[in-house]
């Protein structure tokens, strides 16, 4: 049996949840980028360039979401190994608020606020 199995499995579940969140953020960025490309091709194929307006902001938001997803995966991986080492240590390790947790959560909140403003402006 693995020593402190429940702690290790909880650490792994947390890691996988962050990776799943990062993949969803990256997929949304990919969707925004491809939809903007779709509108460009659609307006070109209909010979009506003014009918479907594309936005350079949508391209930047798509790329930014992809970059945020990459940062989330890297941060989650670093966090996973730090906690793995702390779980395996025989010495007691105090649990405190980690800067990476605050940064990842803050990044997601900032991203959500930005998307709300961006989508609200498009209406």
Automatic annotation (TrEMBL):
Annotated localization: Cell membrane
GO CC entries: plasma membrane
TM stretches of this protein: 15-39, 60-82, 102-120
Keywords for this protein: Cell membrane, Membrane, Transmembrane, Transmembrane helix
Membrane topology annotation: Multi-pass membrane protein
Main location: membrane
Protein name in UniProt: Membrane protein
One Pfam family in the UniProt entry: DUF202
InterPro entries given in the database record: DUF202, IM_YidH-like
Chain ranges of the DUF202 domain: 7-83
